[in-house]
Write a structure and sequence with these properties.
The chain is of the alpha/beta class. The protein folds into 2 domains: 2-41 and 276-378, Glycerate kinase, domain 1 (Rossmann fold, 3-Layer(aba) Sandwich); 48-268, Alpha-Beta Complex (Glycerate kinase, domain 2), CATH 3.90.1510. The chain has 13 helices and 15 strands. It has helices at residues 16-28, 48-56, 91-94, 112-123, 143-148, 204-208, 216-237, 249-260, 268-275, 278-282, 304-316, 353-358, 360-378, and strands at residues 2-5, 35-38, 59-66, 72-79, 85-89, 128-132, 152-154, 173-175, 187-191, 262-266, 287-290, 294-295, 321-325, 327-328, 342-345. It has a 6-stranded mixed β-sheet, sandwiched between helices. Strands 2-1-11-13-15 form a 5-stranded parallel β-sheet, with helices on both faces. Helix 1 links the parallel strand 1 (2-5) and strand 2. The longest helix has 22 residues, at 216-237. It is elongated. The chain starts with a strand and ends with a helix.
């Protein structure tokens, strides 16, 4: 009998690797002679670097970069086991964790540090970059990233525009002659499920700006600046990004990557499924256990458990896919028709958040064991 354990991280308590190990610890108490495969998963958001590093036998690299406020910080990214692919969560350098109510200014916040991480990865010899776009503090259309890799964004008098989204209203022309030449050969994959365009009522500024501290007036300023930025990109580079799906991800970083690198957009969970050879490893499995910190109706929209379930059904037929989660939210019943066969909460009773985090491993082990006992009692397996 073969079990595959393919969870995402349990935010604040367990990495995906730790969660997979806990699941195996529980199931092995009931099926000690079974075959076990652990495949740490992610969906392109927080935890993607760690999961892919763990799953491929890679390693983490740290570099000093510029945070969204223009200050120096230490950020990490991963180099995968193949030695030629780096995976970067833009939030490591440009994330919302760097700002608060007192210092947030989406008019000037920059993705410059994300570009610095990309350059550092190239200095380590990688040929392929995977960028996870989530948790950003920025709304600069990826202009800071572009400036970091050598793209010159110039005003009419030839001076560079300042960092931040608002300054793009002064952009007059774009010069790629100083862009790092390695980007001509490097492929970039944008890991994102966001389909928002760069500008307009569904654009980066209108939809995500308020989460980063933008007032209605700031939203209008940023949207106009990004629309002008898109016009100049189209004029000088022949790339139409204003309404391209996904261009609005991470405050428009999607647009910058599409305009200034050899980038393509792919669903985050699909990237992880591919990179971990999930479909091949699950093809002869009997049971798949997945999970994350919480699940609700939104899980159907590109989250890890849904990606795992659908890939399993496509590769291994109608074998059980069981989710173990900390919190079961509203609307999970829609998931039962989409590939997830059962959902179990790992919480044994009423707990404080601190208790739940502290006891996450023990609770997950116990829940996995109970699921295994139910399987053993009600099914006959070869």
């Amino acid at each position: 009998m073969k079990f595959v354990f393919a969870p995402d991280s349990y935010k604040g308590s367990l990495t995906a690797k730790e969660a997979a190990a806990a699941m195996q610890a529980g199931v092995s108490k009931v099926f000690p002679d079974a075959t076990f495969v652990q495949i740490p998963m992610a969906d392109g958001g927080e935890g993607t670097v760690q999961s892919l590093v763990d799953a491929t036998g890679g390693h983490l690299v740290s570099a000093e970069v510029t945070n969204p406020l223009g200050h120096k910080t230490l950020a990490s990214y991963g180099i995968l086991g193949d030695g030629t692919t780096a995976v970067i969560e833009m939030s490591a350098a440009s994330g919302i964790q760097f700002i608060d109510a007192d210092n947030a200014n989406p008019l000037t916040a920059t993705t410059y540090g994300t570009g610095e991480l990309m350059l550092d990865a190239l200095d380590h010899g990688v040929q392929h970059l995977i960028l996870g776009l989530g948790g950003s503090a920025t709304n600069d259309g990826g202009a800071g990233m572009a400036q970091a890799i050598g793209v010159q964004l110039l005003q009419a008098d030839g001076r560079p525009v300042d960092l931040g989204g608002a300054a793009l209203s002064k952009l007059a022309r774009i010069d790629l002659s100083q862009r790092d030449s390695r980007f001509e050969q490097v492929d970039v994959t944008i890991a994102s499920d966001v389909t928002n365009p760069l500008v307009g009522v569904k654009g980066a500024s209108a939809v995500f700006g308020p989460q980063k501290g933008a007032t209605p007036e700031m939203v209008a300023t940023l949207d106009q600046a990004l629309a002008h930025y898109a016009d100049i990109i189209n004029q000088d580079l022949g790339v139409a990004i204003a309404q391209q799906p996904g261009a609005g991800a991470a405050g428009g970083l999607g647009a910058g990557l599409l305009a200034f690198t050899n980038a393509q957009v792919q669903k985050g969970v699909e990237i992880v499924l591919d990179r971990t050879n999930f479909r091949e490893q699950v093809s002869d499995a009997d049971v798949v256990l997945t999970g994350e910190g919480g699940m609700d109706f939104q899980t159907q929209y590109g989250k890890t458990p849904m990606g795992v379930a659908q890939a399993t059904k496509a590769s291994a037929g109608q074998i059980p896919v069981i989710a173990l989660v900390g919190n079961i939210g509203a609307g999970v019943e829609v998931l039962y028709d989409l590939g997830i066969d059962a959902i179990f909460s790992t919480e044994p009773g009423v707990q404080t958040l601190d208790q739940a985090i502290k006891e996450a491993t023990a609770n997950l082990i116990q829940t996995a064991e109970n699921v295994a006992r139910l399987i053993k009692a009600t099914h006959s397996f070869k």
